[in-house]
Design goal:
The structure holds 2 protein chains of 2 kinds. Chain A is an alpha+beta fold. Helices cover 38% and strands 23% of the residues of chain A. The longest helix of chain A has 30 residues. Chain A is rod-shaped.
Chain lengths: 254, 174
């Protein structure tokens, strides 16, 4: 084998060891991060990292995702319509993303109607979106409340006018003065239910796989994270080179 | 020359509108008003259920099924009016489209919810759709795009095609 360049041989062994050690210490943390995250990412499927979600407010906050305060609920017949952040739930299952605040909910045998100020959302009892009604009836420009009549039809109110739909929700007429309407009221389903919604809300965001990928690439540490990992890579290269030099020197001495 | 002038107008409008993107969001024509101004009278909506076959055709236009089980429309004589929604970049844009004898008669942006791209609500853009019809599942004419509003323009073109397709379905006309 050809001898190493003369200049390399001139380097004192103690200097080389010193720099090799410094590079080793400097790179140690990054090597650990890269190795551990790398191994974990190699086994994403087995560890179900792409299916498990982060629910730590600290990490979610790091990503700029703020947990909304508390869900809001409305009783819609036997169903509960809820909203947490931009997620809309029926009986605890996400059915739509919308950050427009809810006005209320009502249920007929055919539909679950969810009211937002300028739109009425119709769902099947199973939670499938049937239709978004944005051409509101009569003089109703803003829905203030939603209710259900004794005939099991949906009623909307803007505070002054009450309009009642037919069973198909196609035609509307002004409510009769004596018509009894049960208006939507807020519901309080309890802490367990709220916890379920919060768990679902967080499960819609960051997976462990995403977190590990961002840690592996340095993206987690923001704009400079990339450069930090670049620096770690340079340290590793230095470590390899100084190690090789050291090996070459010791070999030539022998 | 006409093409050049149109392009110039599009660029000028873009420069003007980019200066106030936050003001772009809003309801430009309430849906109920759109229906009333189209037919000039109270007209009962009709319903089209989006069956599997229909959603298959819709998917060819939108690239995805329409996210609802049914759509209401208003129909009088040879005219039909549609209120359709499609996501621009992140939020839905509400369009009001009137089809008359298989051609687009009116094209409106009723509500725009994104911060960028609302230039598509201006007549210089919406009037390009007037008189267009379907050729297969494509529009039979070109629509000039707007720089910086590519996704909104794309959503508008898809909704125009969808309205024409749905009109074909309810009238049975090719």
């Amino acid at each position: 084998m050809k001898n190493p360049p003369r200049i390399l041989l001139k380097l004192k062994a103690s200097q080389l060891i010193k720099w090799h050690r410094r590079a080793g210490i400097g790179a140690a943390v990054f090597v650990l991060i890269l190795a551990v995250t790398g191994i974990a990412l190699n086994h994403t499927t087995e560890l179900a990292l792409d299916k498990r979600h982060i629910d730590s407010p600290l990490i979610l906050g790091w990503y700029g995702i703020e947990m909304p305060d508390q869900p809001r609920h409305f009783q819609a017949g036997e169903h509960i319509v809820s909203q947490l952040g931009d997620q809309l739930f029926i009986d605890g299952t996400v059915v739509l993303h919308s950050n427009v605040p809810l006005t209320g909910g009502a249920a007929t045998p055919m539909f679950i109607a969810v009211a937002q100020p300028r739109e009425l959302l119709l769902f099947t009892p199973a939670g499938e979106l049937v239709e978004r009604i944005n051409a509101l009836p009569g003089q109703i420009k803003h829905i203030e409340n939603i209710g259900v009549t004794t005939d099991q039809t949906i009623a909307l109110s803007n505070g002054n006018e009450i309009m009642v739909a037919d069973t198909d929700m196609l035609a509307w007429h002004t409510a009769q003065s004596k018509q009894h309407i049960t208006w939507s009221i807020p519901a309080t389903p309890g802490d367990d239910f709220n916890d379920r919604l919060i768990a679902q809300y967080s499960s819609d965001n960051i997976t462990y796989e995403r977190l590990l990928l961002d840690l592996h690439s340095g993206r987690l540490f923001g704009e400079w994270g990339f450069y930090l990992m670049d620096a770690a890579a340079v340290l590793l290269i230095l470590l390899a080179l100084t190690g090789l030099w050291r090996w070459c020197q010791s070999k030539s001495r022998r | 020359m006409t093409h050049f002038l149109r392009q110039l107008t599009l660029w000028l409008a873009l420069v003007l509108t980019l200066s106030a993107p936050a003001a772009a969001r809003g309801v430009y024509l309430p849906p109920a008003e759109f229906i009333h101004s189209t037919f000039g009278q109270e007209i009962k909506p009709r319903m089209i259920w989006l069956s599997k076959e229909l959603q298959h055709g819709i998917k060819q236009i939108l690239g995805h099924p329409y996210p609802a089980l049914r759509l209401r429309y208003w129909h009088n004589g040879a005219r039909s009016a549609w209120i359709l929604e499609e996501i621009g970049k992140e939020k839905p844009i509400t369009f009001g489209i009137v089809v008359n004898q298989g051609r687009i008669e009116q094209f409106h942006v009723l509500e725009f919810r994104e911060s960028r791209g609302s230039e598509i609500r201006y007549p210089f853009f919406t009037e390009q759709f007037v008189s267009l019809r379907l050729d297969g599942l494509q529009l039979n004419g070109d629509i000039d795009g707007i720089s910086g509003a590519t996704l909104s323009v794309r959503a508008g073109k898809k909704m125009a095609r969808l309205a024409l397709y749905l009109h074909q379905q309810i009238t049975g006309a090719p």
